[in-house]
Amino acid sequence: MKIVLKQVNLLHPGQKLNEKNDLLIEEGIIKKIGGLDEEDFKLAKVYDFENKYCVPGFFDMHVHLREPGREDEETIETGCNAAAAGGFTAVACMPNTNPPIDSAEIVRFIKEKSSKHLVDVYPVAAATLARKGESIAPMLELYDAGAVAFSDDGSAIKTAGILRNALEYSRMINAPIIEHCEEETLADGAMNESFTSTILGLPGIPNVAEDIIVMRDIMLAEFTGGKVHIAHISSKNAVDLVRQAKKRGIRITAEVAPHHFTLTEEMLKTFDTNYKMNPPLRTRVDVEALIEGLKDGTIDCIASDHAPHSIEEKEMEFIFAPNGILGLETQIGLVFSELVHKKHLTLNQVIEKFAVNPRKILNIPVPLIKEGEAANLTIIDPDLIWTVDISKFKSKARNSPFDKRLLAGRSISVINNRKMFFEEKFFAI
Ligand code: DOR
After folding, report:
1. Rounded CA gap, 311 and 327, in Å?
2. 377: domain range?
3. Is the same domain home to 158 and 241?
4. Residue with the nearest Cα to atom 3 of ligand 1?
5. In this structure, are 194 and 230 located in the same domain?
């Protein structure tokens, strides 16, 4: 099977590639860039991608696939379909499943179940057994089975002593500890702690609950020489702490979720549980600091924290509803609308944050756009105006606060593992 992407803008910051050309893909391999002759077009399916951008396949390093355990909310298959529809060729999935990803069998189960999909799935294993924070998981065995990082996501690693052990083990394999930064004794709330939470009568979670764990983890990363990756950073102080730590050469990286740089706690006035997530939406000051952190490279990656929940559970009274929202199918649109079109980030910076840095952090090779390489590509139309429609999501869940939002910019196709997703369908190529 041959396909030609015609007159597409090829962009890859790592390769210093920026050219408009024809791309021939045969049996999943990039066969030719430019110089296509009549023979190349023969029997090929031709896609006219003029004014579209062809970039290395995007990687979302923070998604919840819910399998095993909550297949009513999402499965590996529906989560992968949502990732492809949203413009991603790879995801890293978090270990707060039921049972949690704390044994080699479960890592292998996820790898096996996802193996035939267009989207590559990289499991993040629990750092501690059952994510309880009491004793570390069999990290080296989990790594051998295919885990790429360790995290107790959903909660922070409970104690400094356990984190120290986890960092010492993870250092042996150069894998990061992905930290959910929240000191649990300060975090018994349903939204950001502020004047607004007082007015709304909702229990608050102060910024310092996040900052204190970021500080602890920076100190232990420095002490052990291990790598810490801060998940879904949300507060201004946390951004400042990461910035200073990086300057001191500590091995620390960070990601931000699109809801944290597009929404503020003001949305909580609606009492819509689709604005309830963990960490909570913060203030305008925090949003500005997150955008600044993205611009100056303090924040390395953008990741969705795609967190599917059932309608029944999300429709509970605010304080009882679960935390989290969907992200895979809206985040490219949000990033282009809020960051690229508003001139906060360039397209090259978006590629760094969505394709290059997540893989660097997880020690996964970055796909190249080069003759002879396997095609692992995302095709973007940065100017496509579209309206989010949750009823069309490939995800099983519907808990998005962005329904009906008008966005500019979208992925129109992804290619990986000899498969292509285009116009809502998968094709073998
Ligand atoms: O909002 C969140 N939802 N934050 C988390 O850390 C966990 C996630 C989930 O699993 O639903």
Report:
1. 16
2. 2-54+370-384+396-428
3. yes
4. 324
5. yes
**Burial of residue 245 (number of CB atoms within 10 Å: 0-12, 13-18, 19+):** buried
One domain, residues 82 and 222? yes
Q: Provide CB contacts within 8 A for 417, sequence distance 6+.
A: 28, 117, 118, 120
Residues 347 and 402 in one domain: no
The pLDDT of residue 225 is: 98
Instruction: State the residue for tokens 């502020």.
Output: 194
Its pTM stands at 0.98
Residue 91 has which token pair?
Answer: 């995801």
Residue 247: band (very low, low, confident or very high) from pLDDT cuts 50, 70, 90: very high
The string of DSSP codes covering 165-183 is: HHHHHHHHTTPPEEE----
Ligand 1: distance of its center to the CA of 34 in Å?
A: 45
As a three-state string, the secondary structure of 238-286 is HHHHHHHHHHCCCCEEEEECHHHHHCCHHHHHHCCHHHCCCCCCCCHHH
Q: Express each pLDDT in 333-350 by its tens digit.
A: 999 999 999 999 999 999
Q: Give residue 199's identity as a one-letter amino acid code.
A: I
Question: What band does 255 get if pLDDT is binned at 50, 70 and 90?
Answer: very high
For the CA of 155, the closest atom of ligand 1 is: 6
